[in-house]
Design goal:
InterPro entries: 7TMR_DISM_rcpt_extracell_dom1, 7TMR_DISM_rcpt_extracell_dom2, DGC-Regulatory_Protein, GGDEF_dom, Nucleotide_cyclase, Rev_trsase/Diguanyl_cyclase
Structural class: alpha+beta
Number of domains: 4
Pfam families: 7TMR-DISM_7TM, 7TMR-DISMED2, GGDEF
Protein name: 7TM diverse intracellular signaling domain-containing protein
Number of strands: 16
Keywords: Membrane, Transmembrane, Transmembrane helix
Largest sheet: 7 strands, mixed
Organism: Hydrogenophaga bisanensis
Strand content: 5-15%
Length: about 600
């Protein structure tokens, strides 16, 4: 009734009330079905045995188990069993976080009754990185059965070598079996969840997980190799930094997801227990140095740059401290350094973002998901959030989003830098304003053309073109219009020149077109006519009514009738003088000097 009164109309109130009642009935039905299927009613205030009848293939153990913390961590299962009625057990709920410290142990008790023995059932701790986990129960003969897993054991010595700790439940069907789980997990809070799966369901789940995880690691390996190749070929430190960052990140993901212990180092006890505590800090340090390397420029605050270098050095010291004397304090220091690294990375990206460079913004967008996902492990270490899907797989998802964005940003950055380098290199061969070959390079090519022409007994053509009204453009319309006329002249020469020809700018208003031989006189005249006609066409880039007027001198070289040595510079000077003389002739625009 109260819900209906708050709604704006009776019809809306009736509809909402019916929806609310339907949801309530569905919830009650789900609770009733779940309770009858998976657990008997509470006994003495504690959950009854979990009924495993095959109606569902997987269910969580939260709410169906109780826990107690042994402050000494020294009690054995038979001692716990003997004193179980005297211990202050509490119901274990979903997402519960427990801080154990250096010596305490967490004991979890639950009862399970398998109704059919045609399918094996397994208990899974759905997280990696737990120091030590042991499952205890008595078999039919009253003997203790012990199954172990955890980072303090080599994965090959686990009861069931897997990504996560997995234990086999007893197959007895005549009555419930009581299980005791002992968990030792120092330095960071424990908040893992236990699930009971049928063996086929767990295997199917693993296949799907391994497929998706394998896709990520394949992508990471490919990107690392591509970045390494680009870094070596183009000598770009940014690609090398990205390759290191991606490689370390992939190894860290392998450690935190349990894939590394299962496939890469299954027989190593020391590395299995230390990999995550070494690789995760290295990821933070490599990521910070990668960002610093990529966006290092004059518009980055030098104080931030120095802080990045100093924090990287601090990371090295913290890793050494944590590995030599592991403690809760060292772990908290690493977590604090992680938070500082994320804050500094935000500052670096914001400082770079204000530059307006598009590639910088792609880099920032790529790093952002990883920064957001990286906060979850830090919050978990400070006992602010519980382990869950995002804390386990958040960084993998973020890395998958991050990879294409970072690669695209790096490629954009590299293309801009290579374009600038190519332009700088081209200045040695080309003239900056028009983009044509410069005078020095034109003389070299003319020299080679003269030698080939003499060797193979043919002739090449050299056209010297003067922009006759360049001075008028500059005086009447300014330097900018005069330069525009020169640029248009260069563009016109490029359209007339063949692939084997060379178009060059000789001085302020003089150009040359070297036509490689064998060349007939008609071809040279046709090229000169095309240049002259192209200049007379109206152009929107020039003042209204203005056109490009040229004076063109043509010679076929080498000329046996004149005594000039095979000196390209003398041939060019000869035609340059002829072009200067032609400018006083108002009747002709094209002159041939030796044919």
């Amino acid at each position: 009734m109260s819900v209906a009164r708050r709604l704006p109309s009776p019809i809306a109130g009736t509809t909402a009330l019916r929806a609310w009642m339907a949801m309530l009935l569905a919830g009650l039905l789900l609770w009733f079905t779940t309770g009858r299927t998976h657990a008997l009613p509470l006994q003495d205030g504690y959950p009854g045995p979990v009924i495993i009848d095959g109606s569902v293939q997987s269910f969580p153990l939260a709410g169906r188990s109780i826990y107690w913390i042994d402050p000494t961590g020294q009690l054995e299962p038979d001692e716990i069993e003997a004193r179980q009625d005297l211990l202050p057990w509490s119901e274990r709920t979903n997402g519960q976080r427990v801080t154990l410290g250096e010596s305490a142990a967490l004991w979890i008790r639950f009862d399970a009754w398998v109704q059919h023995d045609d399918v094996h059932w397994e208990l899974e701790l759905a997280r990696s990185g737990t120091d030590h986990v042991a499952l205890h129960y008595r078999d039919r003969h009253g003997q203790w059965v012990r199954q172990e897993a955890g980072d303090h054991l080599a994965v090959s010595r686990w009861h069931s070598p897997d990504r996560y700790p997995v234990f086999t439940l007893d197959t007895r069907t005549e009555g419930p079996v009581r299980y005791w789980v002992k968990i030792e997990h120092a330095r960071v809070p424990f908040s893992g969840e236990f699930y009971v799966h049928s063996h086929p369901h767990l295997r199917e789940q693993r296949i799907h997980q391994q497929f998706l995880i394998g896709a990520y690691f394949g992508m990471a390996l490919l990107l690392s190799l591509v970045a390494l190749a680009n870094g070596l070929v183009f000598r770009d430190k940014s690609f090398l930094a990205y390759a290191i960052y991606t490689g370390v990140l992939a190894l860290s993901m392998a450690a935190s997801l349990g894939v590394g212990g299962q496939f890469l180092w299954p027989d190593s006890v020391v590395w299995n227990s230390r990999a995550e505590f070494i690789l995760l800090p290295l990821v933070a340090m490599a990521g910070l140095l990668f960002i610093r390397q990529v966006i290092q420029a004059s518009w980055i605050d030098r104080r931030l740059d120095r802080m990045a270098v100093a924090l990287s050095i601090i990371w090295v010291g913290l890793i050494v401290w944590d590995q030599s004397e592991p403690s809760t304090a060292s772990m908290q220091a690493l977590s604090a350094a992680g938070a500082a690294t994320m804050a500094l990375t935000y500052a670096l990206l914001w400082s770079a973002w204000r530059s307006g460079e598009r590639w910088v913004r792609w880099i920032a967008l790529g790093v952002l998901p990883m920064l957001l996902a990286g906060t979850l492990p830090v919050l978990r270490n400070f006992n602010l959030v519980s382990s869950g899907f995002l804390s386990q797989y958040g960084m993998v998802l973020a890395a998958t989003i991050e990879a294409p964005l970072l690669i695209y940003g790096l490629v954009q950055r590299s293309s801009i830098q290579h374009e600038a380098r190519a332009r700088a290199k081209a200045l040695a061969l080309t003239e900056p304003l028009t983009g044509l070959t410069n005078r020095h390079n034109c003389i070299l090519r003319l020299h080679d053309a003269l030698i080939r022409a003499q060797r193979y007994q043919h002739r090449c053509a050299l056209l010297v073109i003067n922009l006759d009204n360049h001075e008028w453009f500059t005086q009447e319309h300014g330097r900018e219009v005069g330069d525009r006329a020169l640029v248009l002249t260069g563009s016109l020469l490029r359209t007339v020149a063949r692939d084997v020809d060379t178009a060059a700018r000789i001085d302020d208003r003089t150009f040359a077109l070297l036509m490689e031989g064998p060349v007939r006189p008609a071809q040279a005249v046709s090229a000169a006519t095309a240049i002259l006609a192209g200049g007379l066409r109206p152009n929107e880039q020039l003042p209204v009514g203005a056109t490009l007027r040229f004076k063109i001198v043509i010679a076929l070289l080498p000329d046996p009738s004149i005594e000039l040595p095979m000196d390209a510079q003398q041939h060019l000077a000869w035609l340059h003088d002829e072009a200067d003389n032609l400018q006083w002739d108002r009747q002709r625009n094209i002159a041939t000097v030796n044919f």
